Amino acid sequence: MTDQQKIPQATAKRLPLYYRFLHNLHLQGKNRVSSKQLSEAIKVDSATIRRDFSYFGALGKKGYGYNVEYLLGFFRKTLDHDENTPVTLVGVGNLGTAFLNYNFTKNNNTKIEMAFDADKEKVGEVIGDIPVYHVDELEDRMGSISVAILTVPVSEAQKMTDRLVACGVTGILNFTPARISVPSDVRVHHIDLAIELQSLVYFMKHYPMDQDEE
Amino acid sequence: MTDQQKIPQATAKRLPLYYRFLHNLHLQGKNRVSSKQLSEAIKVDSATIRRDFSYFGALGKKGYGYNVEYLLGFFRKTLDHDENTPVTLVGVGNLGTAFLNYNFTKNNNTKIEMAFDADKEKVGEVIGDIPVYHVDELEDRMGSISVAILTVPVSEAQKMTDRLVACGVTGILNFTPARISVPSDVRVHHIDLAIELQSLVYFMKHYPMDQDEE
DNA sequence: CAAAAATCGTGAATTGTTTCACTAATTCTA
DNA sequence: TAGAATTAGTGAAACAATTCACGATTTTTG
């Protein structure tokens, strides 16, 4: 399942974006789109889009563009949008709650199945259809879920990570500022809100924009 | 203010990370650190760290490493950590609230000064020291704030963006899935939670890890 | 139906980033 | 204090991603 010929990582990161936009076009009843139109809508250079698509073969038609339905079907398979990947969420604070209320399943191939928190107040609640359990029950309830969203306080980050990994988790979306340590077969993506904000400010000051650069 | 000689963007994105880690070391009373130690802690190759630092000149000492206090002071200046950049937040849902509760000012050079929401229930509240105003007052209250965090529903994203830009905002941290349109001098950083999750899942399936790759 | 316009796919050039591998300097050890 | 160990800084190589620019093909227009 390690993929046909490896797609560049930069391309892989854009695939969900393409998928979502194509999905919207499809809902609007559009059945044709060009790399130029896509480019304007999602702000990615049109040559980059054509290059990205070309890794999967010749999906378009010269002089015409791409057929929305065909492309969408293609991506649905490529992104495994038929099966839903179950996800767990640990830490039902504001950020965690935001995730629970976000309707992921719709138009997504992931579904948050359950959430955990240490606060007795929150245990037993159902937020956006998702039950909140006490964190003590983690090991009993995780089953074979392999993806976790980590939205706990930074002081708990490494501890919870270790427990998740022990439960068989191999992918973690880490929203804590901690740079957590994991075995080499576990993938961690960091999203650090404070750093994103600082980074934006730094770029504004030092890289003033004047074209449509990213 | 356009910066001495431009630092690579990849480097610039790591600067806040370096800063935070150095800050922690300093609090712990450490006064010396090597690129190897930094590397292990923040999971960035040590050669990359040395290269990053070298853009700012020779900050370390061979056979010794870097002096924490000196380096920290240097970054404080480089990252303008003395002045606080004022920020506004629009959309006080769960995600917005998470930001308001996040103590940004501490150890950061940004401060959320005010928040706006359309919901009368929320107006008048003070969350984490930050007052919430009605979105109708946006134009009156923004003053000279040039950075905004956008955490509104996707349907409001472009509308609010236009209003923010009209108020003089030139940097937006966009958490909505909308790819908003802005004049070419406005910088937008997108953080799309659904896409981050999908992307993680895609990478897990197609790029199984076995070294300490990113 | 012929000419003009649109648009993909891609080789090659360009640009950006990371990593290797070594030198030179300093610190540490006994 | 001599030799071993450490470690920054960096030229060059390797790798990754983007963008240019053009041929080939199809669609559109008059």
Automatic annotation (TrEMBL), chains A, B:
Subcellular location: Cytoplasm
GO MF annotation: an example: DNA binding
Designated name of the protein: Redox-sensing transcriptional repressor Rex
Binding sites annotated in the UniProt record for NAD(+): 91-96
Gene of this entry: rex
Function text: Modulates transcription in response to changes in cellular NADH/NAD(+) redox state.
Record lineage: Bacteria, Bacillati, Bacillota, Bacilli, Bacillales
DNA-binding region (UniProt annotation): 17-56
Family: Belongs to the transcriptional regulatory Rex family.
